[in-house]
Write a structure and sequence with these properties.
The complex is a heterodimer of chains A (341) and B (263).
Chain A (H helix, E strand, L loop, with lengths): L1 H27 L6 H24 L8 H19 L3 H23 L4 H21 L1 H4 L14 E2 L4 E2 L4 H24 L1 H11 L1 H6 L4 H27 L9 H14 L6 H20 L5 H15 L7 H21 L3
Antiparallel strand pairs in A: 1-2
Helix pairs in contact in A: 2-7, 2-10, 2-11, 2-12, 3-4, 3-5, 3-10, 4-10, 7-10, 8-10, 11-12, 11-13
Chain B lengths: L7 E12 L2 E12 L3 E5 L6 H8 L7 E6 L2 E2 L5 H7 L1 E3 L12 H8 L8 H6 L3 H17 L15 H14 L4 E5 L7 H16 L3 E5 L3 H7 L2 E6 L2 E6 L1 H5 L2 H9 L9
Parallel strand pairs in B: 3-8, 3-9, 6-7, 7-8
Antiparallel strand pairs in B: 1-2, 1-4, 4-5, 9-10
Helix pairs in contact in B: 3-5, 3-6, 5-6
Bound molecules: adenosine-5'-triphosphate and magnesium ion.
């Protein structure tokens, strides 16, 4: 018992140290980047929340094609609340998240009558209907051109402190704070009984239902939580870029989310984060430097195929695999050395 | 405790379930009395599993009614029925294969381990979770599986998987437990142990209805047996009466692969 207790303490301390180290790195990061790279870093942080919220939905076994549109619901709602009703921006973002969650709650009635492939197609159709509404109703959604000159995040003007959120560095830290809190909440949900129940529904929904799990309610819950955080990501996006339009939330963008999730792997919490970070680095730094920008879909496709073929469990499985190989390599020569010649 | 109560706790009245042109359950009626071990037998394809699926809410009945403690429950959701105390197990190993043995039973504690969303988030559900954990381990110990709590289910031999399936159901604290072929794939020793466990479950005040092809087990265990054939009631009665009923023998001999079951 004693040993287990100290072991747990050591492990927890190691974890905390790693987290502190990670945050120190993240805090230093923008100062190592150029201005345009800082802008990319902001979008990357927002995309981390997008793909992590998506993973929560996939825990129940359902893959949606409407997640980016749901992010758009948050973006449009937050932008409109700020523009038309003068709602202060931090609050409008929160309400944008609630709007996205409410949309999901409504959509769950038709969508969760379907499962698997039909859910996938159903979610795509629902997303397209929402996009059609944005395009069709110029008032208030701005039609195909969307919304422009969305209120920025208000500057902080105190006597001792002045923060201008037009600066990507500052917005980076704002987004980082919001996304960190969100990821913490998502993590807690997954580690609680709610997460266990989501997994149970994924693997054997009939058995879960037979011991009293209302699978419809829990699928809806996953969808609503995932959508809330996608909506928050949308709000962060809208008030950073200052403009949203229906094309920004099209299924093309959804494909990127899917690629991030699949390449990173969805079995662990950090898998999708790895996916989006690695692919963004490849995309923005390597491809841009090589001038291969236009080949982006081709290269993403190639990466997807290669990862499905050679890393079916995603980038997240690379760490443990390399570790095992390293141990074997280290153990190999040593063991061989001990062998009598 | 060995004498079944007078009150029917579970009843089917004129239950019918069609799949397209096929009538899987046909105007079928029975009543299960409190604290009974009630057998449901019949040749392959007779409609036993379908009957369970209708009672437990997986399928809505095409016609007829199901009554639980006198209340019409036909067409209610499975999860709602579990909350009322009606829980079923599955034919074959239906488990959360990717979970540990303990986590399987913890899911079974779903109804017992209530907590609000926020309390789950901030961790104040610890008390109810610890209780659920203790109950889950207790249930595992009842089946003699406590040593295997940390094992992944896929490592378990078939017999243990069948027991675990029952443990998951029992963790939900049912009033009526529907067991679909609990002894299939078990060796005689395992079957004997399971029969003793089923009796103990009944002695805890759980009414049991079971479908089983192992005739010796059924005859030994059940207080009353309902025989169905082609979706309809054939005979009902005490084990000795059913065993010697010419209609039952005929039904089993007449079915292609049922021969010998009724010997
Ligand atoms: N979902 C379904 N769709 C169509 N037909 C079905 C369905 N479920 C069962 N059936 C049919 O209903 C009939 C009864 O099947 P059921 O599984 O209830 O039999 P059973 O008595 O449990 O048989 P066994 O002893 O082999 O388990 C069979 O002919 C089966 O093919
Ligand atoms: Mg059956």
């Amino acid at each position: 018992m004693q040993a287990a207790g100290t072991g747990g303490l050591v492990r927890r301390t190691a974890w905390r140290l790693r987290l502190v180290f990670l945050f120190a790195m993240l805090a230093a990061l923008p100062y190592l980047l150029s201005y345009s790279q800082q802008e990319i870093a902001v979008l990357l942080v927002i995309n981390v929340l997008l793909v992590c919220s998506y993973r929560l939905l996939t825990l129940t076994g359902e893959w949606s094609l409407g997640h980016v549109v749901i992010m758009g619901v948050g973006a449009y709602a937050s932008a409109l609340l700020a523009k038309q009703f003068g709602v202060p921006v931090p609050l409008s973002m929160l309400l944008g998240g609630c709007m996205a969650a409410a949309t999901a709650a409504l959509l769950s009635f038709p969508l969760f009558r379907m499962k698997g492939f039909y859910f996938l197609i159903g979610s795509f159709a629902a997303g397209e209907i929402i996009r059609l509404i944005w395009k069709r109703f110029t008032d208030p959604f701005g039609g195909p051109k969307g919304l422009k000159r969305i209120d920025p995040f208000p500057d902080i003007e105190a006597s001792f402190l002045s923060v201008d959120f037009y600066e990507p560095v500052n917005y980076y830290f704002l987004a980082l704070a919001v996304v960190s809190v969100s990821l913490f909440v998502l993590y807690r949900i997954e580690r609680s009984r709610i997460g266990l129940t989501f997994h149970a529904i994924h693997w054997q929904d009939r058995l879960a239902e037979s011991v009293g799990v209302d699978t419809f309610r829990y699928r809806t819950l996953a969808f609503v939580i995932a959508s809330f955080f996608a909506g928050i990501a949308g709000g962060l996006y809208a008030h950073y870029v200052g403009a949203v339009n229906p094309t920004r939330f099209s299924v093309d963008q959804m494909v990127y989310v899917l690629v991030w999730a699949i390449v990173g792997g969805t079995a662990t919490f950090h898998g999708p984060i790895l996916g989006v970070v690695v692919l963004t680095v490849i995309n923005e730094i390597v491809l841009r430097a090589l001038g291969l920008d236009t080949a982006r879909p081709l290269i993403y496709g190639a990466i997807l195929i290669l990862s499905v073929l050679y890393l079916p469990n995603g980038l997240e499985s690379l760490g443990p695999r390399l570790q095992a190989r390293w141990r074997r390599w280290r153990g190999g020569p040593a063991a061989a050395g001990r062998e009598p010649a | 405790m060995n004498v079944p109560g007078e009150r029917p706790i579970l009843e089917a009245r004129g239950l019918t379930r069609r799949f397209g042109g096929l009538v899987a359950v046909n105007n079928f009626s029975f009543s299960v009395h409190e604290d009974a071990i009630h057998g449901l037998i019949g040749p392959n394809g007779a409609g036993k599993t379908t009957t369970f699926n209708v009672i437990s809410g997986f399928y809505a009945p095409t016609a007829g009614r199901v009554l639980f403690r006198g209340l019409d429950i036909s067409g209610r959701k499975t999860s709602a029925l579990a909350a009322m105390g009606l829980v079923r197990t599955f034919q074959g190993s239906t488990l959360f294969q990717e979970f540990s043995v303990l986590d399987n039973v913890r899911v079974g504690r779903h109804l017992g381990a209530r907590a609000g969303f926020l309390s789950r988030l901030i961790g104040t559900d610890r008390i109810s979770e610890r209780e659920a954990d203790a109950k889950a381990r207790e249930t595992l110990a009842f089946f003699g599986l406590e040593e295997l709590a940390g094992e992944p289910v896929s490592n378990l031999p078939h017999g243990h998987q069948r027991m675990l399936g029952m443990a998951v159901a029992l963790a939900a604290e049912p009033k009526v437990l529907l067991l679909d072929e609990p002894f299939t794939g078990m060796n005689p020793e395992e079957t004997r142990r399971m029969m003793a466990l089923v009796r103990r479950i009944r002695d805890r005040g759980v009414t049991i209805m079971l479908v089983e092809h192992d005739m010796q087990a059924v005859m030994n265990l059940c207080d009353i047996i309902t025989v169905m054939n082609f979706g309809a009631l054939l005979v009902e009665g005490a084990p000795e009466a059913v065993r010697n009923d010419p209609a039952v023998i005929e039904a089993y001999l007449g079915s292609t692969d049922g021969a010998g079951h009724a010997s």
